[in-house]
Automatic annotation (TrEMBL):
It comes from the Eukaryota. Coiled coil: none annotated. This is Peptide hydrolase. It comes from Vanrija albida. It is an enzyme of class 3 (hydrolase).
Length: 388
């Protein structure tokens, strides 16, 4: 990661590119959760959560440099979590030259419903930075963000499943006048990028190995004729990148008092919703760390960006929400970025924010399976495929 000032001129060059795709980040009906739904989701904390190095983090807080045995073990752990949840897994494995010679990298891509035409993508990098002396753990960089993604997947899988069952059975709910069959067309995808870290000095080529590879791959992969975007004759010919509503990238999180900015105008409304979720959690007494602290800036920071795994996707026009603390944590790229840098209350707050925001984005009903869900009115009108 490197703090890079993006010049106004560069932004001006990119602006037309971004606006050409702006329709993809069009505003959704962001269905705010009721107070009780929010409370139910927020307090779903796993029972083993009494220390920062128990649960998922116990498996992630190890040195895991790309191409090493430990990196493979972390991949296996991530895969095992999603296998249990029944998600679809794709591996993007490739070998690339680095300053240390050829290294094998593996991005892991997990999708709840691989047939859905659109995706909300949450992502983080799971590799840790190489240091000659070894031993660097990267707790904030990015073990904690990876653990949050696992938490979101576990918390929301039952809701995603319940909705899919209703849609498959032809009995989707009508919520606030919106049919959840439409909402179900956007699924949740979680990407763990490998090779984010530079081996030597951070440059355009010695950094973000995994995300560069995946963005190139998806940019060259055309959608099948049956896809709704192809049927709608979108131009230019749509690729897998077009199925990404937004790429949300989490990085350098888990230490106390983060300061998070919005960097992109087209996704600022999502950032505002994220900040609103945090405000609601705080007002409801569901935040036990820094409850008086604002983590989310009120202003768009359009003139500086932080180089990270989103770069290759941004340059190909994918809408980006970059959740990173700036300034970076004091432990950044130091041996002290270990479990002592993390705070349980902070991690819990991030998990709650991301669970509630993601559920609202996807239009999930948080009391799914409960009495409230079955009591809601059903949509009886037949759908044609054109309406998908
Ligand atoms: C691999 O992880 C273990 C902890 O599980 C650690 O003791 C070991 O040093 C790591 N190996 C390398 C090469 O960093
Ligand atoms: Zn780093």
């Amino acid at each position: 990661m490197r703090l890079a000032l993006v010049l106004l001129a560069l932004l001006a060059l990119l602006a037309p590119l971004v606006s050409a795709f702006a329709s993809r980040a069009r505003r959704r009906d962001f269905r705010a959760l009721s107070e009780s739904q929010m409370g139910a989701l927020a307090t779903l904390d796993p029972p083993e959560w009494d220390a920062v190095d128990s649960g998922h983090l116990a498996h992630l807080l190890v040195p895991r440099v790309s191409g090493t045995e430990n990196n493979t073990q972390v991949q296996e752990y991530l895969s095992s979590v999603f296998a249990k949840l029944g998600w679809h897994e794709d591996k993007d494995r490739f070998t690339q030259e680095t300053p240390l010679g050829d290294v094998q990298f593996t991005n892991l891509i997990f999708t709840f419903d691989a047939d859905a035409p659109r995706k909300l993508v949450l992502s983080a990098h799971f590799d840790s930075k190489w240091f000659e002396q070894g031993g660097f753990i990267g707790a904030t960089d990015s073990s904690a963000p990876c653990a949050t993604l696992l938490d979101v997947a576990e918390a929301l899988t039952p809701l995603l499943r319940a909705r899919k069952a209703r849609v498959d059975a032809g009995t989707p709910l009508l919520q606030d006048g919106h049919d959840e069959e439409d909402a179900a067309a956007t699924t949740l995808q979680i990407i763990f990028f490998d090779g984010e870290e530079a081996f030597h000095e951070w440059t355009d080529t010695d950094s973000v190995y995994g995300s560069r590879h995946l963005a190139d791959k998806w940019d060259a992969e055309y959608l099948p004729p049956s896809h709704e975007f192809v049927r709608r004759r979108l131009s230019p010919r749509p690729t897998v990148l077009d199925t990404v509503d937004v790429l949300v990238l989490l990085d350098l999180l888990g230490a106390p008092s983060p300061s998070i900015s919005s960097y992109y105008r087209d996704t600022d409304w999502m950032f505002v919703q994220l900040s609103a979720v945090d405000d609601r959690l705080r007002a409801a007494g569901l935040v036990d760390k820094g409850a008086k602290e604002h983590w989310f800036s009120k202003y768009i920071n359009q003139f500086s960006g932080i180089d990270d795994d989103h770069r290759p996707f941004l340059h190909k026009g994918v809408p980006i929400l970059h959740l990173i603390t700036s300034p970076f944590p004091a432990v950044w790229h130091r041996m002290s970025d270990n479990k002592d840098a993390l705070d349980l209350g902070v991690l819990r707050r991030w998990n709650r924010i991301m669970r509630v925001w993601t559920a609202a984005y996807l239009g999930l009903s948080a009391d799914d399976g409960g009495a409230a869900a079955t009591a809601a009115p059903r949509n009886a009108s037949p759908k044609t495929t054109d309406e998908l």
